[in-house]
TrEMBL record:
Keyword annotations: DNA-binding, Transcription, Transcription regulation
Domain HTH tetR-type: 6-66
GO molecular function, one term: transcription cis-regulatory region binding
Protein name: TetR family transcriptional regulator
Transcription regulation found in the keyword field: yes
Provenance organism: Labrys okinawensis
Annotation: DNA-binding region: 29-48
Cited Pfam families: TetR_N (PF00440)
């Protein structure tokens, strides 16, 4: 079978992300990606320059996908505490089983090592927190800060689930976040 002469960057970066997620960050090499996408390794080197630049481009592409998914999900939820839970449960649905979640932590490690990718993650967090703030706003007012607390609770619930993955991650996240919402709404009501 002949190699394709060209593929759009998006297709190549999807193949790179697939390699990252299935075989880990160290498996993302030009030779491995060439085998996965069908382009010559030399073509990939010309396109991306170095392994570090390739990894960064793939992870920036992943952030683009997460931005888009977050935007689409946020557009379809009610601006209520239940809508905030729905958003975070939907964002958790891609984690899959514990093995997939654990492999994803290796990808997060790569994001944390790179200043550009860290900044990209912080920008996504700010967007997510803004949506959560609108969902958790009191009637007729706005309470800043609850969105950040809920986002932190979400991330914590994912980590704790990883130690005892007794049920699907979305089920665990939903239960934990509904308890969080019940707690903050009872505190607002003074009970």
């Amino acid at each position: 079978m002949t190699r394709p002469k060209t593929l759009p960057d998006q297709t190549v970066l999807e193949a790179a992300l697939q390699l990252l997620h299935t075989k880990g960050p160290e498996a993302l090499t030009f030779a491995g990606l060439a085998q996965a996408c069908g382009l010559a390794a030399a073509t990939l080197v010309q396109r991306f320059g170095s392994k570090a630049q390739l990894k960064q481009a793939a992870l920036l592409h992943a952030w683009d996908r997460l931005d888009e998914k977050t935007s689409q999900l946020a557009a379809g939820i009610d601006r209520t505490p239940a809508g905030a839970v729905d958003l975070l449960v939907a964002l958790s649905s891609d984690y899959g089983a514990i093995e997939s979640y654990a492999e994803g932590l290796l990808i997060l490690r790569e994001d944390l090592r790179d200043p550009l990718l860290r900044a990209r993650g912080a920008r996504w967090r700010d967007t997510l927190v803004g949506v959560l703030d609108t969902c958790l706003a009191e009637q007729g007012g706005r309470r800043q800060g609850l969105g950040q607390l809920m986002a932190s609770q979400w991330q914590g619930s994912l980590a704790w689930w990883g130690f005892e993955p007794n049920c699907p991650v979305a089920e665990h996240v939903g239960r934990e976040l509904r308890q969080f919402v019940a707690f903050i709404t009872s505190k607002r009501a003074g009970t």
